[in-house]
Write a structure and sequence with these properties.
Blueprint lengths: L8 E7 L2 E8 L3 E6 L2 E7 L6 E4 L2 E5 L11 E7 L2 E9 L4 E4 L2 E5 L5 E7 L2 E9 L1 E7 L2 E9 L1 E7 L2 E8 L3
Antiparallel strand pairs: 1-2, 3-4, 5-6, 7-8, 9-10, 10-13, 11-12, 13-14, 15-16
Length: 167
């Protein structure tokens, strides 16, 4: 429909805690979108991401340098309500649906909070680079995991710990 200025960061447009798409955001503007349609542009200020429900801005929270959560905190939300904020480390944290961690994305120098119903069950060390795919908070597989261990968990209980090498 139109082109807006895009700069140094990328912000995620979410609906009911599911990341729909990542859009470019400058240091000053954030495109609020619904189904790919730009609804409005708001001030970003080193990325204050909009908490949205179905394209409607509910509130704006501070998230550090970008929604990729660089040196920052990540808001865990359910249907537009902020449940809690957890530390995210240097990079992206978790893609979640209804507070369940679906997968961890490039969680560098950080820890991932394993949560159930909005409550932090435990924190596992993530290492320098980790891509883990989880289902219902159970880690199915870990890929490209360097200098770390991954806790395989079921309903918050550690079943076993797997060491991943540089591969």
């Amino acid at each position: 429909m139109r082109v807006i200025y895009c700069g140094h960061s990328r912000l995620a447009v979410t609906n009911n805690c599911v990341i729909l798409r990542g859009i470019h955001c400058s240091h000053i503007r954030l495109a609020v979108m619904n189904d790919g349609v730009i609804l409005r542009v708001m001030y970003c200020d080193h990325s204050r991401p909009a908490v949205m429900n179905n394209g409607v801005i509910i509130r704006v929270i501070y998230c550090g340098h970008s929604i990729r959560c660089s040196h920052s905190r990540h808001a865990i939300m359910n249907n537009g309500a902020i449940i809690r904020v957890i530390y995210c480390g240097h990079s992206q944290l978790a893609v979640m649906n209804n507070r369940a961690i679906i997968r961890g994305i490039h969680c560098s120098h950080s820890r991932v909070a394993v949560m159930n119903n909005g409550a932090i069950i435990r924190v596992i060390y993530c290492g320098h680079i980790r891509l883990s795919v989880t289902n219902n908070r159970v880690i199915l597989r870990g890929t490209h995991c360097s200098h770390s261990r991954l806790a395989v968990m079921n309903n918050g209980a550690v079943i076993r710990v797997i060491h991943y090498s540089h591969m």
